[in-house]
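Box S1 | Example of a co-folding query
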Amino acid sequence: MHKLVCAALLLLLSLSWSKTVISSPSGSHRYKSIFSFGDSFADTGNNPIVFGWYSVFDPVTRPPYGTTFFGRHTGRNGDGRLIIDFIAENLGLPYVPPTLAHNGSFHRGANFAVGAATALDAGFFHERDIPGGYSKFPLNTSLGVQLEWFESMKPTLCRTPRECKNFFGRSLFLVGEFGVNDYHFSFQRKTVQEVRSFVPDVVATISMAIERLIKHGARSLVVPGVIPSGCSPPILTKFADAPPAAYDSKTGCLTAHNELGLHHNALLQAALGKLRAKHRNVKIIYADFFGPIMDMVESPHKFGFEEDVLMVCCGGPGRYGMNSTVPCGDAAATTCRDPSARLYWDGVHLTEAANRHVADVWLGVINSFTGVSTKQGAKEPCRLGRHRI
Ligand SMILES: *[C@@H]1O[C@H](CO)[C@@H](O)[C@H](O)[C@H]1NC(C)=O
Ligand SMILES: *[C@@H]1O[C@H](CO)[C@@H](O)[C@H](O)[C@H]1NC(C)=O
Ligand SMILES: *[C@@H]1O[C@H](CO)[C@@H](O)[C@H](O)[C@H]1NC(C)=O
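Box S1 (continued) | Returned holo structure for 2-acetamido-2-deoxy-beta-D-glucopyranose
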């Protein structure tokens, strides 16, 4: 019977041979839900709640946030959809509800990500007076705290250990991005060289989180690396007085900050390699965040972006369109005419157009894995050359 179905599918495919059919193999049925941990790159609406607890200013609850896609602010740090939104769409799942702002079921996914979250616990930074002054950041929303939130929710999602393994085994876990805030907060007080010494701690924290999720039953995890911080408008603005030699002459990015990101990504990939060797039945997917952004910085025209690609779309007067006294969301801020012609939205965050490109790259990797394990008696998917359908 299975063979017959496969044959029928192959026939259908040969009749309507198209790239889309092949590259997006029945995505909608592979995962039952998405569980997400991270910071503002993944936060679909938790940050207004958390920032409210601490009485800190949160610009994302004002226009023009959300105007490109949702038509209103949603708590997302962007003009429209985030990478996680494009992933959910592609997998045929609902947008992942932010756990602190959603009053309803989390059976099809839960997003624990919070803007400004760090991998390391807040105490690590407060002990070192980072970022210092009167700042309340980092808030108590680290990866470890998000895992505690997940563990508190777990009894509402599944009961027996067997049921939980089954449920989480058919879920996609997004672990990150984490690290960008650990480093960006630290740059306020520490040199790039000093911050480099934090990288092993950050990577070890991500690694431990993955182990913990695997113990709960996770079988498919996507673990993004960090962005090229040296091309990030807030970093470029903060170090605006750097000597000419500090910049990559081709891109205008700060070389040392980008090297820190490459170092993080190398250590992270090595750690993921060890985890894969230890957990052979678990899919641990590295998602490159650095490369796709560099591609857009290096060849803006290829992506429909304007020449001065390091300029943010929304902000105040300044070389990169950023000005600490006039943040995006402020009444005096200006917004570019066409956000889809920009890489950066309000500073560190990307526009929906850029998020779409990054999501396409990640989905290419996610979809090249088969999804649900074929072990426990599940049917072997039909094979079609290298692809499975
Ligand atoms: C959540 O939803 C339930 C029922 O749908 C309702 O009774 C309850 O008041 C809601 N809670 C909040 C905090 O909105
Ligand atoms: C941080 O949050 C966690 C989880 O909600 C809680 O257990 C812990 O006590 C909090 N720590 C601080 C320092 O507030
Ligand atoms: C930032 O904005 C303020 C107020 O508009 C302005 O006075 C200042 O010159 C701006 N800073 C830069 C670096 O452009």
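The pocket of 2-acetamido-2-deoxy-beta-D-glucopyranose (ligand 2) is lined by residues 140, 145, 148 (CB under 6 Å). The beta strands are 33-37, 109-111, 171-175, 220-224, 283-287, 314-315, 334-335, 383-384, 387-388.
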